[in-house]
Design brief:
The complex is a heterodimer of chains A (654) and B (121).
Chain A lengths: L4 E3 H5 L10 E3 L5 E2 L6 H29 L1 H7 L4 H22 L5 H29 L6 H14 L4 H22 L4 H129 L6 H25 L8 E3 L1 H15 L4 E6 L7 E3 L1 H18 L5 E12 L1 H6 L6 E10 L6 H6 L17 H11 L3 E7 L3 E9 L8 H4 L9 E5 L3 H13 L3 E5 L2 H10 L6 E5 L7 H11 L4 E6 L7 H7 L3 E4 L4 H12 L3
Parallel strand pairs in A: 5-7, 11-12, 11-13, 13-14, 14-15
Antiparallel strand pairs in A: 1-2, 2-3, 4-6, 7-8, 8-10, 9-10
Chain B lengths: L2 E5 L3 H13 L3 E5 L2 H11 L3 E5 L7 H11 L4 E6 L8 H9 L3 E4 L4 H12 L1
Parallel strand pairs in B: 1-2, 1-3, 3-4, 4-5
Helix pairs in contact in B: 3-4
The chains are: A alpha/beta (654), B alpha/beta (121).
C-alpha cells in the first residue's frame, strides 16, 4: 500500500478559513500526524453516526431487492423461481441476520467488514442472476450491480476502503462470470463494462470525498470542541478570577465597612467628648464669672445690710418705716444667701472634709423627707452598708441628697410615683471613664436617685446644671439648686450624670471617690428617731427654717409654735411662759442674739430650757453660753436624728 | 474707748463702720486705700485697724504685712468680699500675715461688734 501525506483542504476545495492542518493517509484516509491519535475517536463517532442510516439503507435495500422480483417475473419468467430463491432464500436471510446483529454490542467491531460482506453478497446474488439470465440471452441484469454500487458507496455507510474492496471484488467476479461462465458477446461485455466500471469508479470518488468530508467535519468538530474547551477553560479561569476578585472585593468591602463603622464610632465618641468638654468649659466659665461677681456683690450687699440693720436698731418700734426697711434687709439677706450658693457652685468655698458613711446621710434625708412628701409618692431605698466611706462634708451631702429628692418629689407631685435611692460601689474602668469623663480610675461610691416623674427633654437636660436655670415657676426657687449640687460633687472630685426621658422619669447618678472601706453599723442605719409630745417654741429669723423646724419636730410628735422674729418670740413667751417645755432658737438674728433671748426668757421663767442653733460654733463665745444658761448648742444644718436626741436629752434633764 | 482706723475703698462701707463704732463709743477715722491709710495711721495711732483687702493703690494684704511688722500689738480685722478667683484665699492670707480676725462680706455687724469688743478688752 502506498502511504503519502497531504492536506485535506486542496482536495476538498474548502475555504481557507476552514483550512485545517490535519493530514491523512491517501488510500485508507486514516488520520495521520497530529490527528492520528483521534483515529479511534473518529471511527467511534463514524459508527455512532452510521448506525441508524445503515439500518435504514439495509431495509431500503431489502425493499428494492425484493421489488425486483416483479422484474424477474416479467423479463425472465422461466427463471423466476431460481431468482426468487436467490433474492428471498439467500440474500434476504443474510441481510436480516446482519440487521438483527446490528443491535448487538459486538456489531461495532465488525460493522465495516459486514457492510463489505453485504455488498459482496447482494452483488454476488446479482452476478448469479446475470449468469442465469445469459442463458436466455438477457444481459441487462448487470445494471443491478450499478444499483449495488450506489448503495455500497453511499447509502450503506461503508468506509471508502471497504466499499472499494467490495466493489472491485464484484467487478472481478462479474468479469470472471461474464467471460468464462456465461460467454457474454464481446460488444455487450464492452458495453456493460463501460457503464459498470464507470459506476464503480464514480462510486469510489463519491465515497472518497464523502469520507474525506466526514473526516474534515470530524476535525472541525474536534477543533470546535477544542476551541470550546479552550473557551470553557478561559471562561473557567475568568470565572475563577472573577470569584477571586469578588472575594477580594468582599473582603475589602468588609474591611471598609468595619473601618467606616469604627470611624463613625470614633466620631460619635469624639462628638460626645466634645459636648462634654464644652459643658465642662461652660460650667467652669460660669463658675469663674460667678466668683468674680460674688466679690462685687458682697461689697454691694454689705452697706445695704449694714445700714438697714443700723436703721432698724434706731427706729422706734412704731415707726412706719420699720416694715419698709425690714423688707430691704430681708431682700438683701436673700441676696447674701444667693451669693453663698453661687460660690458653692463655683467651688470657691472651703469644705470641712471628714470620712462619712453616705448610708447614714441618705437615711437621715429620707426620714426628713418622708414627712413632707405628698401622698402617692413612695420611697424605695436600696442601701449597702458595705460601700465604705467618702471624704466629704456631711452638710454638703445632706444638701445634695435633699436637693435631688426635693426635685424628684416636685417632678412627681401631681402624678405620684416612686422615688428610688440606691447606693453601691462601682469600679471606674475604661468604659465608665469614657462615659463619665470626670472620673479617674478607681473605686467610687455611686448614689443613684431616680424618680418616675415627668422627666425632661434633652435640651433641658443639657442645661440643668447651669446656675439660674429652672423649670419651676418664678418665685418657687432661685434655680441654683442643681448647679450647687454640681459644684459640690465636682469639688469632691466626683461626677454627676443625668438620664431622663419625658413622662418616664429622671435618674441622677452621683459618683464620689471611695475613701475607706469601714462598714457602717447597721444599728445606725435603723436609727430610731427619739420622739416626744411637749410644746416647743422655735425661733429663727429665716422663715423657711422655722417652717422646716416645725415640720421636723411635729413629725416626731412635738407641738411647735414658730416665730421668725426674736421680739415677737419673747412676746409669745411672756404670754404663755408655762406652755413651753423648750425653746429652740437661732443664735444669729437681727436685733437680738439667741443667747440674749435666752437670758430674757430665763428672767421670765428661770427653768426654761433653751437650745441654740448656730452655723458657726467658734463665733458664739463660751462666756455668752454659760452666761445665758442655754442647755445645748446644735450645729446647722439640722440633722433629725441628732436633733431629736438632743431635744430628748435636754427635756429629760440628762 | 479706743481709736479705730477703717480702710475701705467702698466709702459707704467705711462710713457705715465708722458710725457703728462711734455709736459704741469709739473714735474712728476712715481712709479709701492703703497709702492714705498708712499716712493716717502715723498721725492717728489707732488701737484697732479694720481694713478691706481688694483696694486700688495699696491693697490690704501689703498694708497688714507692713503694719504688723512695726506694730505687734495692733489689733487688725480684715474684711473682704472674696477673691475673684480664690474666694477665701485673701482672708486666709490676711490671717497668716497677722490679722486677728477676718470677716467675709457682707458683714454680720453684731458679730463684728462682738469681735471688736473682744479684741479691745
Amino acid at each position: 500500500m502506498n502511504f503519502f501525506k497531504g492536506t485535506s483542504a486542496n482536495l476538498l476545495g474548502l475555504p481557507s478559513a476552514f483550512q485545517g492542518s490535519w493530514t491523512f493517509k491517501r488510500l485508507t484516509l486514516s488520520f495521520s500526524g497530529e490527528m492520528a491519535k483521534y483515529e479511534k475517536d473518529y471511527l467511534e463517532d463514524y459508527f455512532l453516526k452510521s448506525l441508524v442510516p445503515f439500518r435504514f439503507s439495509l431495509v431500503l435495500g431489502m425493499i428494492f431487492y425484493g421489488a425486483f422480483a416483479f422484474l424477474d417475473a416479467s423479463s425472465v419468467p422461466e427463471l423466476k423461481e431460481i431468482f426468487w430463491f436467490i433474492r428471498f432464500g439467500v440474500v434476504f436471510p443474510v441481510l436480516a441476520v446482519v440487521f438483527a446483529f446490528s443491535f448487538s454490542n459486538a456489531f461495532k467491531k465488525y460493522m465495516q467488514f459486514l457492510i463489505s460482506f453485504i455488498i459482496f453478497v447482494t452483488g454476488f446474488g446479482i452476478i448469479v442472476m446475470i449468469i442465469f439470465s445469459a442463458q436466455v440471452s438477457n444481459y441487462n441484469y448487470y445494471a443491478g450491480l450499478i444499483l449495488i454500487f450506489i448503495f455500497g458507496y453511499t447509502f450503506i455507510r461503508a468506509r471508502f476502503i471497504y466499499a472499494s474492496i467490495a466493489g472491485w471484488v464484484i467487478v472481478v467476479a462479474y468479469e470472471i462470470s461474464a467471460i468464462w461462465i456465461s460467454n457474454t458477446p464481446l460488444e455487450i461485455l464492452i458495453n456493460n463494462n463501460y457503464f459498470f466500471i464507470s459506476a464503480n469508479v464514480i462510486g469510489m470518488f463519491i465515497s472518497y470525498f464523502l469520507e474525506l468530508s466526514s473526516r474534515n467535519d470530524f476535525y472541525m468538530r474536534k477543533l470546535l470542541q477544542q476551541e470550546q474547551e479552550n473557551v470553557q477553560a478561559a471562561n473557567n479561569a475568568l470565572e475563577k478570577r472573577v470569584k477571586e476578585r469578588t472575594a477580594q472585593l468582599t473582603d475589602a468591602y468588609q474591611d471598609l465597612k468595619k473601618e467606616i463603622e469604627t470611624r463613625k464610632k470614633y466620631e460619635k465618641e469624639r462628638g460626645e467628648l466634645e459636648t462634654q468638654l464644652f459643658q465642662l468649659k461652660k460650667m467652669e466659665t460660669i463658675g469663674t464669672l460667678a466668683g468674680g461677681i460674688a466679690h462685687d456683690f458682697n461689697n454691694i450687699l454689705t452697706p445695704i445690710l449694714g445700714y438697714t440693720d443700723m436703721a432698724l436698731e434706731e427706729l422706734p418700734d412704731e415707726s412706719t418705716l420699720r416694715f419698709d426697711i425690714e423688707q430691704i434687709n430681708h431682700a438683701a439677706t436673700r441676696g447674701k444667701d444667693l451669693v453663698q450658693q453661687i460660690l458653692t457652685f463655683s467651688r470657691e468655698v472651703n469644705f470641712d472634709k471628714k470620712p462619712i458613711h453616705l448610708n447614714l446621710v441618705v437615711v437621715e434625708v429620707l426620714n426628713l423627707l418622708k414627712a413632707s412628701l405628698p401622698n402617692g409618692i413612695e420611697i424605695k431605698q436600696k442601701l449597702d452598708p458595705e460601700i465604705g466611706t467618702i471624704l466629704a462634708d456631711a452638710t454638703h451631702m445632706h444638701q445634695i441628697i435633699m436637693n435631688l429628692c426635693t426635685n424628684a418629689s416636685y417632678a412627681m407631685m401631681n402624678t405620684g410615683g416612686i422615688l428610688e435611692v440606691k447606693l453601691d460601689v462601682v469600679k471606674a474602668d475604661k468604659n465608665l471613664t469614657k462615659q463619665v469623663p470626670n472620673l479617674k480610675k478607681g473605686k467610687y461610691v455611686r448614689l443613684t436617685l431616680s424618680d418616675t416623674g415627668h422627666g425632661m427633654d434633652s435640651k433641658t437636660k443639657e442645661r440643668i446644671f447651669e446656675p439660674f436655670f429652672t423649670r419651676k415657676e418664678v418665685g418657687s426657687g432661685s434655680g441654683l439648686g442643681l448647679s450647687v449640687v454640681h459644684g459640690i460633687v465636682n469639688n469632691y472630685d466626683g461626677a454627676i450624670t443625668v438620664d431622663s426621658a419625658l413622662a418616664k422619669g429622671t435618674t441622677f447618678t452621683i459618683y464620689l471617690p471611695q475613701y475607706g472601706t469601714s462598714v457602717v453599723d447597721s444599728d445606725d442605719l435603723n436609727k430610731t428617731i427619739t420622739k416626744g409630745d411637749e410644746f416647743i417654741l422655735f425661733v429663727d429669723d429665716e422663715q423657711e427654717i422655722t417652717y422646716m423646724g416645725k415640720k421636723m419636730l411635729e413629725n416626731i410628735g412635738y407641738k411647735v409654735t414658730i416665730k421668725s422674729d426674736s421680739l415677737s418670740a419673747l412676746e409669745e413667751f411672756k404670754l404663755n411662759p408655762e406652755k413651753y417645755s423648750l425653746v429652740v432658737t437661732d443664735q444669729t438674728m437681727p436685733r437680738m442674739f439667741g443667747t440674749e433671748l435666752a437670758i430674757k426668757m430665763k428672767e421670765i421663767r428661770s427653768d426654761i430650757k433653751v437650745i441654740i442653733i448656730t452655723g458657726y460654733i467658734d463665733k458664739v463665745s463660751e462666756d455668752m453660753i454659760t452666761e445665758s444658761g442655754v442647755s445645748e448648742i446644735i450645729m446647722k444644718p439640722l440633722i433629725l436624728s441628732d436633733f431629736s436626741k438632743t431635744i430628748r436629752k435636754v427635756l429629760d434633764g440628762n | 474707748m479706743a481709736k479705730i482706723l477703717i480702710i475701705d475703698d467702698e466709702t459707704a462701707i467705711a462710713i457705715m463702720l465708722k458710725r457703728l463704732v462711734e455709736k459704741a463709743g469709739h473714735e474712728a477715722k476712715t481712709a479709701a486705700n492703703g497709702n492714705e491709710g498708712l499716712t493716717l495711721f502715723e498721725s492717728f495711732h489707732p488701737d484697732l485697724l479694720i481694713t478691706d483687702i481688694v483696694m486700688p493703690d495699696k491693697e490690704g494684704l501689703e498694708l497688714i504685712f507692713e503694719l504688723r511688722r512695726k506694730n505687734p500689738d495692733l489689733k487688725i480685722i480684715a474684711i473682704s468680699g472674696g477673691g475673684r478667683f480664690q474666694y477665701e484665699g485673701y482672708l486666709n492670707s490676711a490671717r497668716h500675715l497677722g490679722a486677728n480676725k477676718v470677716y467675709q462680706k457682707p458683714l454680720d455687724l453684731k458679730e463684728l461688734m462682738n469681735s471688736i469688743k473682744e479684741l479691745l478688752s
